[in-house]
Amino acid sequence: MVGLEMNSIDCLPIDDYIKTYYLPVMYSIISVVGIVGNFLSSSIIMVNLAVADLLYALSLPVLVQFYGTSNWTLGELMCRFIRFCFYCNLYGSILFLTCLSIFRYIAVVHPLKAAEIRRKRWAILACLAIWVFSLVEISPMLGMITVQQKENMTTCLDFASNDPQVVWWYGWILTVFGYVFPLLVVCWSYTHIAGSLGSSISRNRPSRSRVRMLSILILVVFVLCFLPYHIMRLLRVDSLRRPGVSCMQRRGIHAAYILSRPIAGLNTFFNLALYTLAGDKFQQAFWSFVHRKKLHQSWKILFSSHLRKSNIIC
């Protein structure tokens, strides 16, 4: 593994420069916005999506310190946990957005069944199932992520930079079942939603426009944030497992892979827009409390929002 990353005279370490200067800046921005913004959600599925985002955002200051100093000082166990947080957010977000798409599909295309699926118990069961499935599908990587010692410096390797013979097939499994299949479900759901909205006599209602915007936003997240990362992760592992790849080509692929990682984390930004499109009123109570208005007014706004949504899952 170390031999694959040896420098040569004509092999510019562009990936090292990107790790040192690009990742700390991007992770700092995502961390601040993600921590502040994801406190502003209250519906069941959105709350669980926010928890996944917060878990990731709270882990980023540690990575900012690591990439800024190029030395990992927190031990192997913490390294595995921090890397695990990224994947928990990644695949948890994918599944929560897929679940949201399915519920929207039922509400729009099969409105007679919407009253049943809008009961809280279905949202709670769906969220529990998503958490369990996410933890099960990414738990094997806890045994694959390691630290590396080199010239008195310790590196916390990201998942795709570990032993390529170990992570290659598992990476493909994650890509197919953790991303491609949910993407197909989302595309199928919103194709039928678009067809239903297009034939609706009330197609110009604001609520219909909001559903369209929500559909477009989720598709943008899947394509813009998640697709580049999954492609570059496979290419990164492949470049490490094939002996004929030149040093410059390997570093170029690694550089593109590093660029894609914060882009995948930008789904936390798009999720903030999802909270607004979902009609979340928690922001009013939050800012009322921050500006030290009467406390009972904050709770009145919060609970009135929950009462109106007591039978609505998203």
Strand and helix map with partners:
Elements: H1 14-37, H2 44-69, H3 75-109, H4 111-117, H5 120-138, E1 147-150, E2 153-156, H6 164-198, H7 206-241, H8 247-265, H9 267-277, H10 282-290, H11 295-308
Antiparallel strand pairs: 1-2
What descriptive keywords fit this protein?
314 residues; mainly alpha; Rhopdopsin 7-helix transmembrane proteins; two-stranded antiparallel sheet; 11 helices; 2 strands; elongated; disordered N terminus; disordered C terminus; GPCR_Rhodpsn_7TM; G-protein coupled receptor; cell membrane
CATH topology: Rhopdopsin 7-helix transmembrane proteins
What kind of sheet is the major sheet?
Answer: 2 strands, antiparallel
Strand order of the largest sheet: 1-2
Q: Count of helical segments?
A: 11
The ordered string of helix (H) and strand (E) elements is HHHHHEEHHHHHH
CATH top level class name: Mainly Alpha
Rg, rounded, reads 22 Å
How would you state the average pLDDT, rounded?
A: 78
Structural class: mainly alpha
Level-2 CATH architecture: Up-down Bundle
Question: What overall geometry do the principal axes of the alpha carbons give?
Answer: elongated
Distance between the termini: 46 Å
Helix content: over 70%
CATH superfamily: Rhodopsin 7-helix transmembrane proteins
Low-confidence stretches: 1-7, 280-300, 306-314
Count of beta strands: 2
Summed up, the domain count is 1
